[in-house]
């Protein structure tokens, strides 16, 4: 059997909020299609899909790895004995490989080069999403992980130049695509719109499988949603409560007066009870309010030039999926 490090590995780099978890649960574990997840004992399929990506991003203490501390030869040696069954395509899937919005993807090029150094024959899968839908989903994810700022400060945070901070330029997809094509080649970079998963899931999966050199499954589970967001009202109105459950970089690891297990029970339990009695019109009202704020903050046309370049690079009809062009 060939070694994984010398194979045509499918490396799915995200982006965040583009159905990564669905792929990790419902497509990439499909050995019957010809996909192969690295053999890491004791891990779930999702963990196996992410394991090599973790080694490219983090050190053993789960800190982002300084480039001077990254050793590609050591990572290759660590995974050198991983084998790939004949006729299958190994998969690495980790959305952090496309950079994180909160740090404005400052390490995108670094991670690209690490992928190339460790997996020189990689094929790169990038999934994009219409920017206004992406901005709202990313904001709700930020609230889920303990962030408490309103959407204006989330999208336009203050900076003193000491740490990377979010900029909406992060979602100009042509930059990321060209960055990967310049190193791996156009034929080894596949870009798909997240919207295709809901509009034409069979075609979405078929394109991924065709690019990976695997067989498209006849049956795919598109009915189940993974990593579902909390309701707008609960997430937004009680955003300052989440830190008792999650102490993260989104809230500067603010100390809590409760132990983590108790904070988790209280935060999630309260919001679930609140949502169970929430009238639908109230939920829709909060959603409209946030959408209105977003439209006041960001001119939809600011992404049009980038989307036209993305469409030209990929051949995708982004306008048909609602992208501003």
Whole-Å distance between the termini?
47 Å
Strand sequence of the main sheet, in spatial order?
Answer: 2-3-1-4-5
What global shape is seen?
globular
Strand content: 5-15%
**Average pLDDT value?**
93
Q: Helix content range of the residues, please?
A: 40-55%
H/E series, N to C? EHEHHEHEHHHEHHHHHH
Q: Return residue spans where pLDDT drops below 50 for at least 5 consecutive residues.
A: none
Characteristic terms for this protein:
five-stranded parallel beta sheet, 13 helices, globular, alpha/beta
Briefly characterize the structure:
With 325 residues, the chain is α/β, with parallel strands linked by helices. The protein contains 13 helices and five strands. Helices cover 42% and strands 6% of the residues.
Describe this structure in words.
- There is one protein chain.
- The protein is an alpha/beta fold and 325 residues long.
- The chain is 42% helix and 6% strand.
- The longest helix has 18 residues, at 280-297.
List the helices and strands and how they pair.
Layout lengths: L9 E3 L7 H7 L8 E2 L8 H13 L14 H7 L10 E5 L14 H11 L4 E6 L2 H14 L6 H5 L17 H12 L4 E5 L1 H5 L1 H12 L19 H6 L22 H17 L3 H18 L6 H11 L11
Parallel strand pairs: 1-3, 1-4, 2-3, 4-5
Helix pairs in contact: 4-7, 7-13
């Amino acid at each position: 059997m060939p070694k994984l490090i010398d194979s045509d590995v499918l490396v799915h780099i995200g982006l965040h909020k583009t159905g990564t978890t669905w792929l990790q649960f419902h497509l990439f574990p499909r050995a019957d299609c010809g996909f192969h997840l690295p053999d890491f004992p004791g891990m779930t399929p999702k963990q196996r899909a992410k394991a090599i990506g973790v080694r490219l991003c983090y050190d053993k203490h789960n800190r982002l790895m300084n480039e001077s501390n990254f050793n590609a030869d050591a990572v290759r040696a660590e995974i050198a004995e991983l084998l790939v069954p004949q006729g299958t395509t190994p998969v690495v899937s980790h959305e952090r490989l496309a950079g994180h919005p909160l740090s404005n993807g400052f390490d995108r090029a670094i991670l690209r080069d690490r992928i190339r150094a460790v997996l020189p024959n990689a094929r790169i899968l990038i999934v994009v999403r219409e920017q206004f839908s992406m901005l709202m989903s990313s904001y709700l994810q930020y609230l889920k992980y303990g962030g408490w700022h309103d959407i204006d400060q989330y999208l336009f945070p203050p900076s003193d130049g000491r740490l990377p901070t979010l900029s909406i330029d992060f979602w100009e997809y042509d930059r990321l695509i060209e960055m990967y094509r310049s190193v791996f080649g156009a034929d080894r970079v596949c870009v798909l719109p997240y919207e295709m998963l809901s509009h034409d899931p069979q075609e979405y999966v078929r394109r991924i499988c065709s690019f990976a050199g695997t067989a498209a499954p006849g049956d795919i589970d598109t009915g189940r949603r993974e990593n579902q967001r909390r309701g707008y009202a609960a997430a937004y109105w009680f955003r300052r409560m989440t830190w008792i459950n999650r102490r993260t970089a989104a809230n500067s690891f603010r100390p809590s007066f409760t132990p983590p297990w108790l904070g988790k029970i209280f935060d999630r339990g309260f919001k679930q009870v609140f949502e169970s009695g929430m009238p639908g019109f109230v939920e829709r009202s909060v959603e409209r309010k946030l959408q209105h704020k977003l439209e006041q903050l960001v001119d939809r046309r600011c992404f049009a030039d980038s989307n036209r370049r993305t469409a030209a690079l990929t051949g995708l009809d982004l306008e048909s999926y609602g992208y501003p062009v």
